[in-house]
Write a structure and sequence with these properties.
The complex is a heterodimer of chains A (129) and B (269). Chain A has 129 residues and is of the alpha+beta class. Chain A has helices spanning 3-6, 41-48, 53-62, 84-96; strands spanning 26-34, 97-105, 112-116, 119-120. Chain A contains four helices and four strands; from the N terminus they run αβαααβββ. In chain B, helix 6 (81-89) links the parallel strand 2 and strand 3 (95-98). The chains are: A alpha+beta (129), B alpha/beta (269). The interface between A and B is medium-sized, with 29 and 32 residues.
Amino acid sequence: MKFITTNFVKCAIKGCQSSTEAFPLKYEDCQLAQEEQEYNPEFIAHMLERLNWPAIIQVAKDLGNESLPPTKPESLDPIMEDDQAVLRDLHTLLLETQIVEGRMICRNCEHVYHIKNSIPNFLLPPHLC
Amino acid sequence: MSRPEELAPPEVFYNDSESFKYTSSTRVQHIQAKMTLRALELLNLEKDQPHFLLDLGCGSGLSGEILSEEGYNWIGMDISPSMLATGLDRDVEGDLFLSDLGNGVPFRAGTFDAAISISAIQWLCNADTANVDPKKRLLTFFNTLYSSLRRGGKFVAQFYPMNDKQTESILGAAKVAGFGGGLIIDDPESKRHKKYYLVLTAGSSERSVNLAGATMDAPETQKRMNKKALKKFESKKDFIARKKETMKRRGKKVALDSKFTARKRRPRF
């Protein structure tokens, strides 16, 4: 699972639907892997506005990276030379960083979702459907 | 043709051997690719912009491969672990999720630009265990999908409905969730090549779906005719029945209705 996905996924349980605690999930015991991806600055600039930066910082902290800037880099232009360094860094963080194994825990209901072979398991037991 | 939905639930039906058979069949690959391209054509996304897509019921990533080829980033969801394992072996680009569509789409609001689904949502119409209600599952699915799409986000789903009732229940659930749109049927005359595409929009969008070549098949509105016009079209039999009815209402003595009422007398009479 790519790092960018952690910024979108939330608890699947119905009771957590309206809770603000259900996003972002808490990440524990995660194994990370770096996998090279095609660099696409347009896509990163496109996704930037819908990223929730506090959630990114929180998840990065869970995964052991505390060096992110506290504010979201704004108005990056994929064509400008000056912005390339930031876009590259974002690309490495968001798309090339993958969570291979680990656990995601909902902060509201404390349900545990396991990640195996980089596939998170969101199947729910019948009593939670 | 037998329908896999009737045999077993999807996570059971698509076991290791079935997933392998499905994914390695060139015929399936060809059809899936064709339908994915058609779904993208219906979505009508801006060509030169990047998009973030959701592939519902992605299976082994046959449709996802096409999405990657077209330059889209995507996330795929499927309920069958074997299918996803096959997808991992094939090194698909998108993120894969093991998840039941009927339990909803676990993404926060406004995540995706668009969503597609190829040959998947008919599975939602089946109740695989005793305590599930397909209607409820469909509703949960469409509700969560609606919120996970950006405003104006589009959803195109190719599916194989078993009967009109299934189509109706899917369309109904989508409408309740707030989607606008309808059904497109490709090759409606051919029984074999007929394909159903559900084309939905979440909220209004400046760029509408691509409906080139589609003909509208709206139900004809029945013109209400006035009494006088109706009288003109009635048969002799109807006329006599109507007259008898009026006379009866007025308390006159009227002959009983029988099979001979208003029949023509033969010449030999």
